[in-house]
Amino acid sequence: MAEDIVRGGGLSSGLAVILNGEEEKENPSRSRLVSCFDDFGDQTVERALEYIFGLPHRSLGTITGPVDEELVCALIKNEMSTLNPIPSNFNSEREGISFENGCGSHVVGLEELSICGDIRIIKPPLLIESLAMFSSIRANVRVWKGKWMYEVVLETSGVQQLGWATRSCPFTDHKGVGDADDSYAFDGKRVSKWNKDAEPYGQAWVVGDVIGCCIDMDLDEILFYRNGESLGVAFHGIRKMGPGFGYHPAISLSQGERSELNFGARPFKYPIQGFLPLQAPPSANILATQLLSCLSRLLDMQSRERSNSFLAAKFRRLKRFVSLEELYYPVSRGICKVMFTILEAEMGSMEYIAWGSFLTFLLEVFRVQAPHEYLSLDKIADVFLEFRESQLVFEHLVNALSSACKTAPLVLTDCPYSGSYPYLALACHILRRQELMVLWWKSSDFEFLFEGFLSQKNLNKQDLQCMMPSVWWPGSYEGAAYEGSMMLTTTALSEAISKIEEKHKELCLLVIQFLPPSLPPQFPGSVFRTFLQNLLLKNRGADRNVPPPGVSSNSVLVSLYTVILHLLSEGFVMRGGTNGHNIGFLHRGGDQSFPVELFLKNDSYRTDISRLGGSVSHLSKSHPISDQEDEVIRWEEGCVDDEETRVTHNTTQKPCCCSCYDLEFSRTSKNSVRYAPRGSRVHCSPLGERSGHVAAECSTGSLNDEIVDKPSTSDQSEADFDYRPLRNLRIVPRESNMSCATLREEELLDTLLLLYHIGVAPNFKQASYYMSHQSQSVALLEETDKQIRERPCSEQLRRLKEARNDYREEVIDCVRHCTWYRITLFSRWKQRGMYATCMWIVQLLLVLSKVDSLFLYVPEYYLETMVDCFHVLRKSDPPFVPSAIFIKQGLAPFVTFVVSHFNDPRILSADLRDLLLQSISVLVQYKEHLAFFETNRTATQILPRSLLSAFDNRSWIPVTNILLRLCKGSLFGSPKHGESSSSSSLVFQTLLKETCVGDEDLFSGFLNRLFNTLSWTMTEFSVSVREMQDKYQVLEFQQRKCCVIFDLSCNLAKLLEFCTREIPQSFLSGTDTNLRRLTELIVFILNHITSAADAEFFDLSLRRYGQTMEKVNRGMILAPLVEIILNLLDGNVGKEGEDQNDVVGVFASMDCPDTVHCGFQYLLEYNWAACGRGDSYLGKLCQLETFLSLLITRIESDQVQTTRGRGETTDDDATCCICYTSEADAQFAPCSHRSCYGCITRHLLNCHRCFFCNATVLEVVKIRE
Prior knowledge:
Layout: H1 15-26, H2 44-53, H3 69-78, H4 80-83, H5 90-93, E1 97-99, E2 119-123, E3 127-130, E4 134-138, E5 141-143, E6 147-154, E7 160-165, E8 183-187, E9 192-195, E10 197-200, E11 210-216, E12 221-226, E13 229-236, E14 248-254, E15 258-262, E16 276-277, H6 284-307, H7 309-317, H8 324-344, H9 349-366, H10 374-384, H11 390-407, H12 421-430, H13 434-442, H14 446-453, H15 461-467, H16 480-513, H17 526-538, H18 554-570, E17 591-595, H19 597-600, H20 616-622, E18 631-636, H21 663-668, E19 730-733, H22 745-789, H23 794-825, H24 828-848, H25 852-855, H26 860-874, H27 883-886, H28 892-901, H29 910-923, H30 927-935, H31 937-950, H32 956-967, H33 986-998, H34 1000-1031, H35 1036-1062, H36 1065-1068, H37 1073-1090, H38 1095-1102, H39 1115-1132, H40 1143-1148, H41 1153-1165, H42 1177-1204, E20 1226-1229, E21 1234-1235, H43 1237-1244, E22 1259-1262
């Protein structure tokens, strides 16, 4: 027997000192162990074992043999009663609970017969998902006495109702938990509690939250907890129950919602004191926890021995003591042997221990904070893995670590080693062992667990408030202490996020380098590739407004994007050696290549992805490409640029992503909030806007949701896109020795773009919202403070103070959200990688655009991601680089691409073409970017013609903004302190003029659409104003619509002003059709502007909230009208001998002379000085007054002639029945209906059918007398 073995060893070196030192701290007067200078006879081994196993002092007798595994097992067995005490009140505590079937001990689960709707378990034991519109289910256990709880881990954060319900509670397709008597629920999506009716309660929940559902039958209360924090008592006085009746745990889910239930089969993440789990913990838990504590003390002794290594070595030389290493092995193996024997005897105990005490034990050994104790962790793993039973424990451990990453919150005081970092660090270390990596890979939940490791818990308003208690922003009244506190907070959180991202990358590299033991042999990266493909397949449709069920958490997509961006930007090493390059894929430069098969192969996760040329099924028929699947397209970096402006990674001047415009420039730039202190290791840049919102920078971009699109009339052909040939472009067969099983960097790039599109872009959109809302709230707060300082009356002061508090809370909330987005999305290296990605993709797209059969197959998300990245970087504040070089040093091809393809018919999606057009519209608003357009060869060659042809019923708003920016600077229409003509582009004005003069058909079509559009906008404006006047109230939406349409009308009128100034002969020479249409428009606008019944109401409808009369007034549209008239008059000067149209005569021929006279008189009497005009208008008004005199004289003369001719008979058949003013001198062929040539010409601009009989017009024949 091991107990009778003769003693053969002593206490390990230094052990007595260690133990004695600890005892002296606790009880200096009594020492359990003597020092290492005592006699040989002191029984030190026994004392060491007493310490390890927590036994009373001198409770062990003399050990008569060596300490081996058998002795340790016997020791544990003999002391079982003291190590594993069973509480005397264990059974009494669990009274008041029973299973539905009335049997004895059972596993708590879901009652299948109670399901209403469609609920499935997607991962055992209880991860459930609703596949129906609304599904409900209850558990197979009920309670009627005592205090009980269960936990719900939220995998999604939509509409879910969690709580308790009796068996009599009916479940239907529309009613679930909380919708009936004796049914109580909490819904964090709607922040309400439910018991037949809803009432406000609790906090908004987010993905990763752990909701504790507690019921206290002693006090008749139901409570809910969020991540261990009480939300308060939700329901008082619930009905008491007795045996045979009671409350069941119950849950209702809307479609696509997922949650994981834990009734106690696993340790609770946030146990609530006094509340018991519905599922009793395994009895082996107590002993296993004690044994793990023994192991912990053993390791602690080893650690202390290493810290006293000099003294230990001295006594080993004297041979007075054995090494603790000799004691460690038998003790640890004995502990493991006993523990696994106990765990195997009780079902479910291994899972419970692995999720609870074993995980806690490993974290204590490993140390949550760095430096980590890798040596001790390895020693533990070595011992455990010697036992076959440990595989199941480690399998559950990996599950527990993955789950913990989903729910671990960031705690400011624990930064930077907070959030999921401890669990990731532990997982990365143990998965370096081949046997554990294989164990994880063979698991059926490998990909699910991988996603869990990449998850990060989301935050709600209260979480941000806890992490950022002090908030400061420029202009706030908080002092320097708040500013400093926020800077320190931002730095700490940035470092924490950086640590987590580092571990995400480490874990992904482990998977990339992993070679699974399978036949046939796989190559490095094959496992990671399969994971990516399945992830993308699962997330098809994740970018929709209502994503399909089963998509991944957004944090998973963002984390994976971050990892891949780092790998491609900073480089990585594949297993077995380097990848052949010392720098990242995105920054290499030189010869570039891309495998065409990434576009052409029909993988399952690509089938639903839209391509530039349409769907894959359509393209496969119209443009088959089977012979090109093995090709690789190659080009030289910079081949798409002009030689004189080319910037590449190999040129002397480097791109912005490889230059040194880092922190110093950012510190000197405008800072919305100075989040990072000087010298901070982590730089936090403010976040850029989403490119989907770039049109908001234009004055009319918000009208897209309010104006119904009409058919496009763009007439640009594919031949217009045949630009200068690329240098060094070639398509070659793929190398035969390139294994398709090896993960390639091009594959990672393709995945990166799709992850950005479905995962990262929505975050930038949300961040853009908070940044915009912050600016608005700050402005409202400052305006309210200004009004308070004006000392209003007491009642008004009270309302202002209330409003100020609301605005201040909104600002604080926005500042916290914006800070969080800056920390998580926009570190410096990410900006660098995004810039390089833009460079790479725009060159790829330009190269592919030369090969129609390939360009058509490019996924739409390539283009969308490129544009999105570009504008996010462009709008970052502090900027990534100075705006003057942002495009010039690296992104010159971006301008070439958007100019070349915003009207490209090969891009089937009109939304994509609009995105490119909006990019141009935004860029030309900035002087430094406009200057680059003027020097870009492609822009100067094709932009004027493309803009004129793109001015159609869909794209006219951004085209108007672009043309207006290029052509602004008119005289009469310029404000006193407005932009001068230098702010426009003389280069493009000249090019536009040359294009219009050189292509009469193009200009005629553009002018016709311009007339039609301006007529439509003024009609819509008048109708909207009239609707508000009829209702005697100004509705917010209608006022906003009026403001937008009025702005559009002003812009269109300014375009006409430019046309009459630069190309007056289009109106003065030839037929007078253009002149008459222009005249009718002027009279039409003047009539609507001057005939308003309520002038004050009319002026109010023009302005948005906060805009003044000086900024927005009638003069905005009246000024261009004046300039148009004067331009026509100036165009006639010096050409009296030529055949010119009579401007005065056309105005006089209008059939509303009184309206014309009143309109011109209004222009002369308008208060131009009050609306901010300069003094230049005085001379112009003199010219206008002279014109009005001539017009009045002509009208009176025409009236006299009309009066004289009334007595004469006229031939009605010879008069045009459309205008009734001109002779019917033309007829349609072949139907022969007659009208005047002017009316026919105008009609044919928009329709080629006879307006009498609707017959197709083949020819117009002039009738000669």
